[in-house]
Amino acid sequence: MPAKSKAQQRAAGAALSAKRGETKVKELKGASKSMYDSMSEKELDEMASTPRKGKPDHVD
C-alpha cells in the first residue's frame, strides 16, 4: 500500500526504523506508534519507500 502523503511516508519510516531496532519504540508518537503496532515490517517498507514526487504534505 503506497503512502498518500509525505507525512504518512515519514511516519511509516519512523515505525520501520523502530521495527528494525534502529530507534527506540518509546520515541514513537502518534501515527508512527499506531503503524508500529498494526503493520508488518514488509507493509511499512512498502509505504516508506513510496516515491515522494507529487505527494501532498498532508491528506485530510
Structural class: mainly alpha
What percent of residues adopt helix (DSSP H or I)? Answer: 40-55%
Question: What is the end-to-end distance?
Answer: 18 Å
User: N-to-C SSE series?
Assistant: HHH
Mean of residue pLDDT values:
91
| Cα gyration radius (Å) | 11 Å
Number of strands: 0
- Overall tally of domains: 1
Seen as an oligomer or otherwise, the chain set is single chain
Number of helices: 3
Report the portion of residues in β strands.
Answer: under 5%
Shape, please? Answer: globular
Largest sheet: none
Show unreliable segments.
none
Spell out the key features of this protein.
single chain, 60 residues, mainly alpha, 3 helices, 52% helix, globular
Strand and helix layout:
Layout: H1 6-19, H2 30-38, H3 41-48
Q: Could you walk me through the main structural features you see in this protein, from its secondary elements to its overall organization?
A:
The chain has one domain. The chain has 60 residues and is an all-alpha fold. 52% of the residues lie in helices and 0% in strands. Helix 1 packs across helix 2 and helix 1 runs antiparallel to helix 3.
Please give a quick description of this structure:
The protein is 52% helix and 0% strand.
